[in-house]
Write a structure and sequence with these properties.
Elements: E1 7-19, E2 22-28, E3 44-48, E4 56-59, E5 62-64, E6 67-73, H1 79-84, E7 95-99, E8 114-119, H2 123-131, E9 138-143, H3 148-151, E10 160-164, H4 173-178, E11 188-194, H5 195-207, E12 216-222, H6 235-244, H7 249-263
Parallel strand pairs: 8-9, 8-11, 9-10, 11-12
Antiparallel strand pairs: 1-2, 1-7, 2-6, 3-4, 3-7, 5-6
Helix pairs in contact: 6-7
The chain binds flavin-adenine dinucleotide (FAD).
């Protein structure tokens, strides 16, 4: 038996440009009434934008007074990126689906420092982790395509921040971590960004630094692929036909699942 995680329908209340490559979306409305944060600072939700069936993960930058804030990186091609940029009209006033939040960050009791490394997609989580750990020294290494002064106040002032930029062929975070001067003593290392870089770092932590797995958390947030993977079944026509027939989202999901089963995908 498969059990689908809880879902919430949220209204897009606001859209704000934080920096050239970061758009802040504020979600709210009655559909979010049952939503509760896990309190884990890197928690994320699945986001399904109108006309799509696939979800993409976004960090809960904040959740207070029924308002959920997500900071979306805009990059050249992508379902959410294009929607957030307004490809299907102004997102404000549209409805999106959000899944239950989940988190992963778990520093051990003996952690005397936090070292956070990530690209722009990891910045919301790094900011929230730093904000929720004012008692520990926090060093952030952020690899971003925007200028540090454009993002200067994004991270709490108490954190020590080193800004870097991606290389011409993409992220260089693995190289950066391999060359890092690590703080003395025991701490917790958290890192997120492009998946191949994360795989390289997991190997480095295990084989070179020999860190116990309880003292680090490394997550692939996105995968660099040259072109969007073609879908075996295009959800767009199914969604439009379902809406035109007055079907509920659940019924349209069922039609999509059926079409995928028939296509063998
Ligand atoms: C736990 C978790 C938390 C995350 N939190 C955030 C967050 O807070 N903010 C955020 O913006 N992202 C976050 N991400 C990453 C985000 O889910 C991916 O970047 C996602 O692929 C974006 O979806 P899309 O629809 O825009 O692009 P897709 O349709 O998924 O991808 C289209 C193309 O864009 C490329 N691509 C995808 N992401 C990027 C990128 N960042 N830079 C350059 N090329 C890219 C892909 O390789 C692909 O070729 C998180 C991911 C995880 C797993």
């Amino acid at each position: 038996m498969s059990v689908r995680a809880a879902q919430y329908t949220a209204d897009v209340l606001g859209r704000e440009q934080v920096s050239p490559h970061l758009i802040r979306l504020t979600l709210g409305g009655p559909g979010l009434a049952g939503f509760a944060s896990t309190g884990i600072p890197d928690e994320w939700v699945g986001l399904v934008v109108p006309g799509q069936f696939q979800s993409r993960y976004y960090t809960v930058r904040s959740f207070a007074d029924g308002r959920l804030v997500l900071d979306v990186v805009v990059h050249p091609v992508g379902l959410v990126t294009e929607w957030a940029l307004g490809a299907s009209g102004d997102p404000v006033g549209q409805q999106v689906t959000i899944t239950e939040p989940k988190g992963s960050f778990l520093e051990p009791d003996d952690a005397a420092w936090l070292l956070l490394v990530g690209d722009l997609t990891a910045l919301p989580a790094m900011a929230r982790i730093a904000e929720t750990h004012p008692d520990l020294p926090v060093h952030v290494y952020a690899e971003v395509p925007d200028l540090p002064e454009e993002l200067g106040s994004y991270l709490p002032a108490a954190a020590r921040v080193t800004w870097g930029a991606p290389g011409q062929t993409g992220s260089r975070l693995a190289e950066v971590v391999e060359d890092l001067d690590w703080p003395e003593g025991t701490g917790y290392f958290w890192m997120a960004g492009e998946s191949a870089q994360m795989r390289a770092i997991r190997k480095h932590l295990m084989r070179v630094r020999r860190m116990p797995s309880t003292h680090y958390d490394v997550m692939g947030y996105w995968r660099a692929v040259k072109e969007r993977q073609p879908r075996a079944v295009d959800p767009g026509p199914i969604w439009r036909a379902g809406k035109a027939a007055g079907k509920s989202d659940e019924e349209i999901w069922a039609d999509y699942d059926q079409a995928r089963t028939e296509a063998g995908s």
